[in-house]
Automatic annotation (TrEMBL):
PANTHER family, per the entry: PEROXIDASE (PTHR31388:SF126), PEROXIDASE 72-RELATED (PTHR31388)
Protein name: Peroxidase
GO biological process: hydrogen peroxide catabolic process; response to oxidative stress
Pfam family, one: peroxidase
Source domain of life: Eukaryota
Keyword GTP-binding listed: no
Site positions for Transition state stabilizer: R62
Record-annotated active site: H66 (proton acceptor)
Source species of the chain: Vitis vinifera (Grape)
Protein's job: Removal of H(2)O(2), oxidation of toxic reductants, biosynthesis and degradation of lignin, suberization, auxin catabolism, response to environmental stresses such as wounding, pathogen attack and oxidative stress. These functions might be dependent on each isozyme/isoform in each plant tissue.
């Protein structure tokens, strides 16, 4: 009888182990067994894309950022519009500016090929591609937590309400970040992602023509390529060395040469001035804090376990 009871207990334990949700927490080792070639493949495709166009590194980093700020890091930003999906691609912060979707498609195709089936989520691809983009441009690396699953819906309204605006002052920025569980240090460190990439004229036109906390020579230089009327899609670098991950973004802020209103808001007599000054002269401090904040941001409300799905095509629900 005791033997039979022990056998039943053993069977129950095996059943419990088989049905337990071990993927509820993210782990850097999530794909080690199911697809050990996944991360090297993502890195290879990202490096090739950034080598072809340096700006792509900033674009892929931005996709991850804009994804995580809208109901968590779930690849909702990648979904195209349908009769039931109001695509986040059409939100104010993304329309005609978010890019890199073709590179994500390429990564997904290559990863599924080496894995033999769709086991890597689009959300994890965005997280890893962001890290690999930063590294490709000379920035820090960090251990990406993995195991996210993909959403089956998107929200343009939430994207408009949650993604920080380039026209925001410091209190509004702090609130937007705080709503995601991110503190003031995270705000400044993650804003440092603007050390790479460009912005469209319509996002900084008012600043270079109407604001006073701006270096006059810098304003004139930007006005030469961003006219007061028209030219809204003309690009300007967010940092003078936009193809290299360095401290130039913060050095610019100290000199009142922040391109966006929200950039200069970080150094305008407020609570974040000291940290901006520190980062402007200490690449090590900036790199370390940026890496920590990227991990923290990547942990915003991920779908795990049996929630969501692993999309076959990152642009649409299975």
């Amino acid at each position: 009888m005791a033997s039979r009871s022990l056998l039943c207990l053993y069977a129950f334990v095996l059943f419990s182990l088989a049905t337990a949700d071990f993927s509820a927490a993210l782990s850097p080792y999530f794909y080690n067994k199911v697809c050990p070639k996944a991360l090297p493949t993502i890195k290879r495709v990202v490096e090739a894309a950034v080598q072809k166009e340096k700006r792509m590194g900033a674009s892929l980093l931005r996709l991850h950022f804009h994804d995580c700020f809208v109901n968590g890091c779930d690849a909702s930003i990648l979904l195209d519009a349908t009769s039931t999906i109001d695509s986040e691609k059409n939100a104010g912060a993304n329309a005609n500016s978010a890019r890199g979707f073709n590179v994500v498609d390429d990564i997904k195709s290559q990863v599924d090929k080496v894995c033999g089936r769709p086991v890597v989520s689009c959300a994890d691809i965005l997280a890893v591609a962001a890290r690999d983009s930063v590294v490709a441009l000379g920035g820090p690396s960090w251990t990406v937590q993995l195991g996210r699953r993909d959403s089956t819906t998107a929200s343009r309204t939430d994207a408009n309400n949650n993604i920080p605006s380039p026209f925001m002052d410091l209190p509004a920025l702090i609130t937007r970040f705080s709503n995601q569980g991110l503190d003031t240090k995270d705000l400044v460190a993650l804003s440092g992602g603007h050390v790479i990439g460009f912005a469209q004229c319509n996002f900084f036109k008012n600043r270079i023509y109407n604001e006073s906390n701006i270096d006059p020579a810098f304003a004139r230089a930007r006005q030469s390529t961003c006219p007061p009327n028209g030219g809204d899609t003309k690009l300007a670098p967010l940092d003078p060395t936009a193809a290299r991950f360095d401290t130039g973004y913060f050095t610019n802020l100290v000199k009142r040469r922040g391109l966006l209103h929200s950039d200069q808001a970080l150094f305008n007599g407020g609570s974040t001035d000291t940290l901006v000054k520190t980062y402007s002269t200490n690449f090590g401090a900036f790199s370390a804090d940026f890496a920590k904040s990227m991990v923290k941001m990547g942990n915003i409300k991920p779908l795990t376990g049996k929630k969501g799905q692993i999309r076959v095509n990152c642009r649409k629900v299975n």
